[in-house]
């Protein structure tokens, strides 16, 4: 058994597809199938139960997947540390960015970082803050931008942005001319939320439940600009950080301050306390911290 066998099996289960796993690994589907078959012959076991098109693990396959994650994490850490010792200021970083943070705050940061460290390659993963936090926990990402607060026992962090949510609505909405809106005023509104991979999804729902109602959710999206367009089409109301509201078209929607309660939106850069952090990742953390401190 080789490291690549563990990578292949893990990717197959991650994508629930031999074909998609092969694409992610930049190999052909016959190659990945042949490698799995060779492994099964070597160990005299079956890794996958052949059940039509559905991919299921055998008991032996489950045992392999159970141990594959920690082994691959240790292997990646070893290779990263070796590369650091060999190539100063070279290597790669896996960074997770939520859509709002990526588009609003990081294009210029990324440009300046690449100008200063042209030897470091960056793999960008755009996802919701909750999914990014999970990926940081399992070692899939090195650093990521998440919604604070986070588990301080698991992660080190520094603050990037401190903001608060506003309510956005169509200009003709009955509440659009108010200077402030209380959360209770929205009890009978149609809500447009971020999808469940985003920390704001549950945060807004929980805040509504805390004052006695479940929000009526009509749409969910992973893109803040599309949420803005749906609100502009009078399909419902939404909540976005003030920083984002400032770039929306005021002719298409209104942004009104939310009070009682105020819902904070704090972005932090996070990375695991445990495990090896590459030199490239440490450079990224120091670089972005300096830039965001300058912006305060």
Task: Report on the architecture of this protein.
It is a single chain. This protein is α/β, with parallel strands linked by helices and 296 residues long. It has 3 domains: 3-82, Winged helix-like DNA-binding domain superfamily/Winged helix DNA-binding domain (Arc Repressor Mutant, subunit A), CATH 1.10.10.10; 86-160 and 266-295, D-Maltodextrin-Binding Protein, domain 2; 163-265, D-Maltodextrin-Binding Protein, domain 2. It is 45% helix and 25% strand. It has 11 helices and 12 strands. Keywords: DNA-binding, Transcription, Transcription regulation. Belongs to the LysR transcriptional regulatory family. It comes from Paenibacillus radicis.
Features:
296 residues, alpha/beta, D-Maltodextrin-Binding Protein, domain 2, 3 domains, 8-stranded mixed β-sheet, two-stranded antiparallel ribbon, 11 helices, 12 strands
